[in-house]
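How a chain folds remains the central question behind the approach discussed here. The record that follows shows the chain in one-letter code together with its fold in token form:
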Amino acid sequence: MRDGGLSPRAIVARIITIIIFAILALRLGYIQLVDDRYEKLADNNYLRNVVVYPPRGEIFDRNGELLAQNRLCYDVSIVRKDMPRYGFDTTRVSELVGMSREALVKKIKQSPYRRESRLTRYPITVEQKLLLDEMNIGGFYTSQRTVRQYPRKIGGNLLGSINEVTKAKIERDPSYSVGDYIGMEGLELAYEEVLRGEKGMVLQDIYAPQAERNTILKRPVAGKSIVCTIDAELQQLAEELMQGKVGAVVAIEPSTGEILTMVSAPTFNPDELVIGRERGNNYAREINNPRMPLWNRAVKSRYPPGSTFKLVTGLIGMQEGVLRPHYQYSCNMGYHLGGEHIGCHAHPSPLAMSYAIATSCNAYFCYVFRNILENKKMYSIAKDGFESWRDYVISFGFGRKLDSDFLGEGAGFVPTREFYDKRFHKSWNALSILSLSIGQGELGCTPLQMANLAAIVANRGYYYIPHIVREIEGQDSIDTRFYQKHYTKVDSKHFNHIVEGMWRGVNRDGTCQGAYLKGLDVCGKTGTAQNSKGEDHSTFISFAPRNNPKIAIAVYVEHGGFGAEMAVPIASLIEEKYLTDTIRRPHLVEYVKGRKIAYPMYRKKKK
């Protein structure tokens, strides 16, 4: 090696050093000029996307009164990644959000998302509370939104409620995310897509002044308001009359199928299930109530229709040609044949159809039922006659869902030929199932189906699908299925004979004279549904006026006794209120409210 020269090893070392520095320089330049990944990571330390929740569509009654409105609140949320490493002052936070320290810690620990590292920047809602100022604690943020408020505190089962969306729902529907609210039951669930609106998004600079903090990325779109078919005053009256009772009330406008009132008793105050500190306790109380206030009996419960079903038996008999309105049958305190006996109450005998309906004669409709099934001109065996009878019954809306806009609607039950073949080992006839003639036996229907029967008779043979929504904001009309007439298999000419019997039952010499309203030509049919577990169920269907009817109603009171005892006065007061806008029989209101019914079967079982 020459003096002053570099050894080959040193030259190699210099070249390697130059290459390393060149690579570093190029990488640094790429990061600064081309790759924005690190810039985004840096931005994430002070920029965050914040969801802007839209106001939910409000719900009005048919007269423009608010049933469900919005009120302003704030969500207090936690973003775990932004929390100080040394923790946070739980006492201060709990004071700000208005909940105990223990409840706050429990809320965080119980979050279903807390173990998922990919959600460390997701907010976990810990409380909804109106705050005067935003919180300024690392990892805790507030976002403005609206929650429900119910001015009249009515229609719990009808309206439903709002709750935070579940993890399972998010997995099924990616349009929802953690912290979103969703309708639960009733209108809120059935019209969720209409009411929910579209979420917005802002980019929030947490270090910027308050006025400059948010950059709008997407504006929220408010949910659409709904005008429902309910009459708020009528709904409130019906709920008051059903207080302390178990059962349901459904009233329909026959000319449209619009539901005027729908009560499931017992009900609940929908304000108590609004998102908030007490919601969990209130919900637990209601779900543990043995009378099941969260169960919508009006559309889900299956009850025997009792004597109200005699109208259907009579109509089928006339359509089949085995009954004429002037035909008379004898009743000797019931129907007796061989070993079969179906009892009845005292009334003049023999009697024709209109009087049989007015007095609710059991024997009369037993004869009619047998004549339908055993019509030798039409059917070789009674089983064939039964299948034809069943087809008629189905056309009245029984044994199937009516396709209303209530999710979870029950279908009731109309037994099939196969059902009886199995029960009676294929050896049965009309006498074996005679109780069907008077709405007993295996028959089951919902109060909604019973109200629909009242509407069918009021319309002389057809109905519109019962529905709860009248108008949706921004839409010219509701679903077209609600404008279509659905006809039964019985000709309209036969219905006037049934209407005559129902009118006579109220206005002359029948079982439902307590429903009489001067000048309103109320028509009705009582029912006393037998019950093996206690006092009979009291039921009544009615419509008024006789011509151009404005309201059709069904009332079902579990263990209420005879139809005339409880169901008739409740229905009559509701009809009076709707048709005259007043109540002129305060003594009847006091009678209904003061009548106590024992429900030992609904007592909470001791552990």
About this structure: The first strand starts at residue 47 and ends at 52. The chain has a mean pLDDT of 86. The domain at 51-84+125-226 is CATH 3.90.1310.10 (Penicillin-binding protein 2a (Domain 2)). The first helix runs from residue 8 to 33.
